[in-house]
Amino acid sequence: MFKKKNEDFIKNLDTVRVIQTPFVIANKTIKTARNGKNYIELNLSDKTGNITARIFPDKNTTEISDNLHLKSIYLITGSVDEFPRNSKNFSIKIDEFKKLSKDEYDLNDFARVSKKDKKELMNQIKTTINNINNPYLKKLLESFFSDKKFVYAFCNAPSAKIYHHNYLGGLLEHSVEVLKICVTVSDIFPEIDRDLLYTGAILHDVGKIKAYDYDLVSVDFTEEGKLLDHLFISCDMINEKINSLDVEMPENLQTQLLHMVLSHHGEVRNGWGSPVDPKTPEAVALHHADNLDAKVKIIIQNNGA
Amino acid sequence: MFKKKNEDFIKNLDTVRVIQTPFVIANKTIKTARNGKNYIELNLSDKTGNITARIFPDKNTTEISDNLHLKSIYLITGSVDEFPRNSKNFSIKIDEFKKLSKDEYDLNDFARVSKKDKKELMNQIKTTINNINNPYLKKLLESFFSDKKFVYAFCNAPSAKIYHHNYLGGLLEHSVEVLKICVTVSDIFPEIDRDLLYTGAILHDVGKIKAYDYDLVSVDFTEEGKLLDHLFISCDMINEKINSLDVEMPENLQTQLLHMVLSHHGEVRNGWGSPVDPKTPEAVALHHADNLDAKVKIIIQNNGA
Amino acid sequence: MFKKKNEDFIKNLDTVRVIQTPFVIANKTIKTARNGKNYIELNLSDKTGNITARIFPDKNTTEISDNLHLKSIYLITGSVDEFPRNSKNFSIKIDEFKKLSKDEYDLNDFARVSKKDKKELMNQIKTTINNINNPYLKKLLESFFSDKKFVYAFCNAPSAKIYHHNYLGGLLEHSVEVLKICVTVSDIFPEIDRDLLYTGAILHDVGKIKAYDYDLVSVDFTEEGKLLDHLFISCDMINEKINSLDVEMPENLQTQLLHMVLSHHGEVRNGWGSPVDPKTPEAVALHHADNLDAKVKIIIQNNGA
Amino acid sequence: MFKKKNEDFIKNLDTVRVIQTPFVIANKTIKTARNGKNYIELNLSDKTGNITARIFPDKNTTEISDNLHLKSIYLITGSVDEFPRNSKNFSIKIDEFKKLSKDEYDLNDFARVSKKDKKELMNQIKTTINNINNPYLKKLLESFFSDKKFVYAFCNAPSAKIYHHNYLGGLLEHSVEVLKICVTVSDIFPEIDRDLLYTGAILHDVGKIKAYDYDLVSVDFTEEGKLLDHLFISCDMINEKINSLDVEMPENLQTQLLHMVLSHHGEVRNGWGSPVDPKTPEAVALHHADNLDAKVKIIIQNNGA
Amino acid sequence: MFKKKNEDFIKNLDTVRVIQTPFVIANKTIKTARNGKNYIELNLSDKTGNITARIFPDKNTTEISDNLHLKSIYLITGSVDEFPRNSKNFSIKIDEFKKLSKDEYDLNDFARVSKKDKKELMNQIKTTINNINNPYLKKLLESFFSDKKFVYAFCNAPSAKIYHHNYLGGLLEHSVEVLKICVTVSDIFPEIDRDLLYTGAILHDVGKIKAYDYDLVSVDFTEEGKLLDHLFISCDMINEKINSLDVEMPENLQTQLLHMVLSHHGEVRNGWGSPVDPKTPEAVALHHADNLDAKVKIIIQNNGA
Amino acid sequence: MFKKKNEDFIKNLDTVRVIQTPFVIANKTIKTARNGKNYIELNLSDKTGNITARIFPDKNTTEISDNLHLKSIYLITGSVDEFPRNSKNFSIKIDEFKKLSKDEYDLNDFARVSKKDKKELMNQIKTTINNINNPYLKKLLESFFSDKKFVYAFCNAPSAKIYHHNYLGGLLEHSVEVLKICVTVSDIFPEIDRDLLYTGAILHDVGKIKAYDYDLVSVDFTEEGKLLDHLFISCDMINEKINSLDVEMPENLQTQLLHMVLSHHGEVRNGWGSPVDPKTPEAVALHHADNLDAKVKIIIQNNGA
């Protein structure tokens, strides 16, 4: 297995030297050099960044390029170059390359992935669902979390394009953290409807599954994410799921739940994207729990960078 | 028919004198006077405001009160009083009252109602629908406007609780006005997708049907209106209608349409309630057409007050 | 013991009737009636509000007034009056009054007091202090909480003049709630310095002891509170206490702690009163934990009102 | 005629190759190469951007440079170079150049010019003026539009330095578009004074004639434009014109008209430059019509870029 | 002379008693009492406020009323009443009244007037003008201050409707104060053009002469003041005066001066009404000198209230 | 003495040529060239900026580097290079260098230093202190200004990292300028407590002594400056000094003084860093005097740049 060494991560490629280490191919183009010959320019990436690399084949440039698969991982042999000298512009001249199979590399070298144990996080959600008393909310949550495709997406989606928890698995991690804070808030304020607050905490960001397009190389907005934003998409997914239940949720309960999700970006006048002010204790609690978790995460991520 | 004279509207009841004119009963309670006798205190209204009135029966106060129907229109005979003297606090002492039937009063004396001709306004919408080329948008609009219950609600709903077009029929009036501005904008900018813009103009506020509770006496938010706001409710109604069509609207078109509705309060950072910035020419046009119509209406309504 | 009945609280004095129940005398003045006779006008209060009352003595008005003690509790016998009729302006005509001793009334009828058990709250603080590892922070906290006068003030001060936790004991209650949220945040983010965060949570509002003047009747700002605000006063009290310790706290630790307190109202540009942005994970966490607790409390207090 | 081909516009000069196509000379300087020889460095432009070019004469560099006329159009023969390699920094090495006369090039290749037909736009303004009933406003408009120098400037000025309609003829185009929207608004709201609104629509931006300095190569602020802004300059021009009329406009009408121009950037507190809030229906309508046209134009211009 | 005693000013009329003291008649109406008789209701004022008063003539009410002159000063004999009792609503029942001539009252009892010596203030302006070196600015200032009508208005106008220096003579007082601060700023920063700054300081608010309508009783906006605001009116007056000079001011100097006046409310984005940002040292200095003087005046006026 | 010529300042090193002139060494590192040889890369500075320079020794690179002293001034002989050609990236190739002693260079070539005479400025402060009547404030000021270490720091500290007076001596210069403005304000408003205002003006920024770390090469925040900001540090220094006096300052006076310092960034809601609004005339005056001086300084500094 070709585990990357620390000095081989892209952010550390800052001296002129020979290397052999795996990268993802993020992009490729064929270019023409001054001497008239064609060469292949690649954009390589690992979890620390991107770097330009070039292959100068003697012939068959097009075929070679056609055989390079985007978003696949290759073992690259070549040299790190700096041009112009002292410009801090480093690139790689590739001498050899070889596609690696899934067991020949460590995915964690390439994708930015949550460091927390997904199973444990999912267990916390499941335990919470088991302890929900309200039969409608329990059904709703069970319906979401018995859908394997949903669970897979929920466990792997990032929580943001930039900002906080912007890595694979970030959505699950963030949702559980918000849930934990909400548990404490419910302990402090017995007036709060726990079942409602916990359901809101777990589901408030589910729309991010559809709002982001993510893979080894990057996180981006989908067309839906760009034009409708995750607040609306989350509500839409919850609505659709409620309609598919075999019981009819009381309309007031449905409105209360949707309200929490719609208002979780806080007061309208702040201009952070909520179309309604949080108007119930549960909505206020969810907004501030979400904000607390996100803001602490941001400063810790930035400090660690 | 007991048409109200100008001096008999509530806002003009500012001198001590005898009157006979119809009012709506907005509220009633039984109270006890200093002398120990019960009397009935009413809140009367017409389209210009509210006033307190009292009936002092000799006996059977409860039965009399039970026979007074809230939100019905009564011909009231009595005197206007000012107490304390010079306090500008006027009330009515009722001597006689009589329930009027529908043909004995003019509804326009009581409800604040659009002055424009509903049929003509509806015709403008129908003509627009007929000229839509996009088959999906045409179907969607036809489906809404072939639903009589919807059309009735759309024609009678107010467009706001306070602010602009805050009277019965205001939604229809405002929607047609926005449509007209959008027609001009499409003439100016041929790059704009007319079908999409017109559909957005017609449907952008449909959620107000569910967001407001209104009658002769007042306009108020429904629970849904308070907790979800009309932007979301409009989208939800459009989504539901699209799902009920016998053709499948292309996902991209649906997203474009929902985007216009979600973003029609303008840029998120303004804090006016849009959860996404308007990001397409049609969404930008709809937002500013809506704003133009509303703001001119406000100043004209205020000037006229 | 003269425990107030529900209908005898000031907010419920809304019908003309005879009463006998205790009140605090918040204010008194001697006035002259139209007939030339003097009478005493009182401002009475209980925990639900204030009401005007009058005593019309036959003679010796001045002596009677001199014997009425402000901020003391009296059993009042008299009648509730409404003048002008139907004005909803109620006042009390006092026939008899009698000063009550401490065991003749229930303090909770008069002062707005935290409903939580102070001993239990103080125990949570003490347990936290015992578990602090950093010797300087532990000393600092022990020094504060071994000072009986400080503890008394800390347990009885309100947390605000208006807004959240604006009742006696509110400071203690709020501080412990923020501490609980900080414990959860520390569980979620192991990168956080727990000792520092807990110390900040406990001490962040200590300046409120000096910023508010409070008694049975009202909460008000002191001159210091008005001109310096509790952020600065808290820092000043912490600084003074640190200087009085028999060990010298490392300067960096002191700066970190003061930073948390100074920045706990969030980013400077929000205009909420912090003179520096929260720049450490502990400061960010404290700010948002404080905000979360306060905002949920506000909506629950308002809902309950 | 040397009409530019699509691939010869500056924004498309992104490969190393030989070219022959016309450019404007926006700037020139004489520089000294490493080998001690002088050369001429030019800044060339067309409507799509700017590019650096160099002439390396064997001798007489100064004379050659003196004969190159700024803001004139030359047919340039030479090669496109990229240095450093792969830097995307393209420049032109000029082998030959020849000044073109007016009929040898197409102005539209160089200046960013309105695509709409000026005559048709001017006709819409003239028709509007003919239909104005108010004699003072009609005189005022006629006086402006019978001044040929003014009409020339009004037809050719841009409407902005950056942002919307930032090309030659943009002012005319924008003014007519705003007028069209105002016609629709007048149809919707019969309470509006049409003559006043149309006059305001036509004249609201006339100050831009003096606020911008523009030519083939660029749009910039004049000293007056920078220090006084077009709102004030427009008012000043209108005032001056009113004073030159042979009738005396009623003071109130003059104030109403100036008010519309001064307030057309909307409410003062928005910080968009109006020194007074729009306070009349006409002023509110003009502001929002102006904003609608500008904002839709911006997104369409950006989409097209 | 009937100089008002302290206890006779309206703000001190808070006990039931007999009075004899002068007031301005601000308004009058004839009303009908419950007993059917007519009486005259007056609104009286002095510099401390307004109060309602009533005259109950036996007959000839209309003639009596016709002979009462608005905005004139009368010696009023009568009694102060409180109705309803304890309502703090005081009014005056008038027994006798007599119109006073100019030498029978002290104007300062009625109008809120600057306490500073106008002559001394005008002298400071004149000395400044004498010391101006720039011949154009000197001519401009001389032209303004040799116009007696202008000087009269400039000396008596208030500087605001509410806020700072909102009394007769406030404009002169404020202008001289701003000038003084500007003198200090010029001492500190030799880079500043003194002549320009002083001219701006003296003239920056001249438009207030036309923007306010003021008399003994009140300060209000004129139509011009409401629709054009004093920034523009000041510029317009300066422009007009410049055009009337027998020398031609260099255009750049005129632009610089107008710029200072237009921008003296600070940066556009603050939303305080400047249509351009202050962009020269003189404009920045004038804005902040103006702001400093106004803000200190406000707090001193409020403290004194 | 090696006084720098104008063309030798770093901002003017924009042509390829030979130079001999002194610089500060701001930074140094050893690097390895393509040919495998080591060289020394320096960051040189003077008061106009920074430039990269390189020494290519034949041998003993490490020893040579060790003998180069950071923040010392060296006479540098070498050539100015541009690489890549036409890139405007200039650097220096050093041929010879020699450390200069204090009398061989002019400090003003390197450090950005106040141009005003420090003695004169200090005299203005001393004269002010002598004229203070309030014995406590006089003692406080004397205590600060009899501390030589404090005076040295106060005379040499900058007033900002960027923005206004951001050079050595800027704090003294700014404090005296604010004082001068406050003298004028006190003349205008006799209600102001001069002693208090002058003391606040002199001491309002003393915390900058501890908030900035500065030397020949740069101004930066200290840890304290970053985490506590100068408002708090100033108050803390004043508090500490007050506690060290042999008289006890009345608590109210101390609160008033601290209030001025804490609030001198203006209203809390502006988000400029004050934790309390200025609530006294002196605090309002200090805030606006400070702002006036800073804003005029900024535009003059920028104009001069």
Fill in the keyword field for this structure.
homohexamer, five-stranded mixed barrel, alpha+beta, 305 residues, 7 strands
Amount of helix of chain A: 40-55%
- SSE pattern of chain A, N- to C-terminal: EEEHEEHHHHHHEEHHH
In what range is the share of β-strand residues of chain A? 15-25%
Shape of chain A: elongated
- What value does the Rg of chain A take, in angstroms? 24 Å
Strand count of chain A: 7
The greatest interface here is: A-B, 30 and 30 residues
| Order of the strands making up the biggest sheet of chain A | 1-2-3-5-4
Q: Please give the oligomerization state of what you see.
A: homohexamer
Biggest sheet of chain A, in brief? 5 strands, mixed, barrel
Structural class of chain A: alpha+beta
Distance between the termini of chain A: 27 Å
The overall pLDDT average of chain A reads 92
| Number of helical regions of chain A | 10
Low-pLDDT windows of residues of chain A = none
Task: Write up this protein.
Chain A has 305 residues and is an alpha+beta fold. Chain A is 43% helix and 19% strand. Chain A has ten helices and seven strands. Chain A is elongated. In chain A, 41% of the residues are buried. The model of chain A has no long low-confidence stretch (mean pLDDT 92). Chains in contact: A-B, A-C, A-D, A-F, B-C, B-D, B-E, C-E, C-F, D-E, D-F, E-F.
